């Protein structure tokens, strides 16, 4: 069965995400817990947690992925920002354990010009400290779009970070838009093979399936709907002719304003992947 879903809204409570995902026939989903653009992670009430656990069982939508909010920066050279970022990740991972959510997706942040190796060390220390104890929650390192000073835009950097963290509860999330923006030509099967070789298939737990608004190597993190961007339907077909990847989980983070658009896009994606 194809594991396909959207990043869905949690407005009205995190458990509502299951209802919407069910409504659009999805088999997995991604959510934020709390607002993505504020620092503090709001407490989720026991009642809401219970609702979430019950709906998780009933809908069988799994796995669920939680995306870390955008403000934390796990590579920040600013002591206070760094500390707060690690705390935020730690809170999220604990909340996920309580909600029986297996995966948290993290961006690796920006070294703000302080140099790559230092930035990598900070990310490694951040994730290592959060994962010093096993609790069944994987931290997934997401490849970045090649923005200035961003950490983790190349497969080599991602693998270096992964190896240095040295935890069995760490893996990768591969975003197709970010790959393309960082200069990896997603329209080619060889690129899929390259990712497999460099990262190790068994470590990849999730594909963020997004088309790219800008050209190859643009360094800009702007997603486009599947088929409407520079990767295009034929590009995706060629990438996923590397059949091994079809068994992975797929989450769409494309810009939409209606359910109809999403249903149409899901149809397109199924045509590409099935
Ligand atoms: Zn992301
Ligand atoms: Mn992504
Ligand atoms: Mn992005």
Give the topology, please.
Layout: E1 3-6, H1 16-23, E2 29-31, H2 46-59, E3 64-67, H3 79-98, E4 103-106, H4 116-130, E5 138-142, H5 155-165, E6 170-175, H6 176-181, H7 189-199, E7 204-209, E8 211-212, E9 223-224, H8 232-239, E10 249-252, H9 259-273
Parallel strand pairs: 1-10, 2-3, 3-4, 4-5, 5-6, 6-7, 7-10
Antiparallel strand pairs: 8-9
Helix pairs in contact: 1-2, 3-4, 4-5
The structure holds zinc ion and manganese (II) ion (2 copies).
What's the gist of this structure?
The chain is of the alpha/beta class and 274 residues long.
What is the radius of gyration?
Answer: 18 Å
Q: Count of DSSP E strands?
A: 10
CATH 2nd-level architecture: Alpha-Beta Barrel
- Which H/E pattern describes the elements? EHEHEHEHEHEHHEEEHEH
Q: Spell out the CATH superfamily.
A: Divalent-metal-dependent TIM barrel enzymes
Q: Give the CA-based shape.
A: globular
Distance between the termini: 10 Å
Mean pLDDT, as a whole number? 96
- The CATH class is identified as Alpha Beta
Helical fraction equals 25-40%
What structural category characterises the helix and strand content?
alpha/beta
Total count of helical runs of at least 4 residues: 9
Largest sheet: 8 strands, parallel
Sheet-strand content, in percent, reads: 5-15%
- Spans of at least 5 consecutive residues whose pLDDT stays below 50 are none
Q: Taking strands numbered 1, 2, ... along the chain, how are they ordered across the largest sheet?
A: 1-10-7-6-5-4-3-2
Q: What is bound: which ligands?
A: zinc ion, manganese (II) ion
CATH-defined fold name: TIM Barrel
Number of domain modules: 1
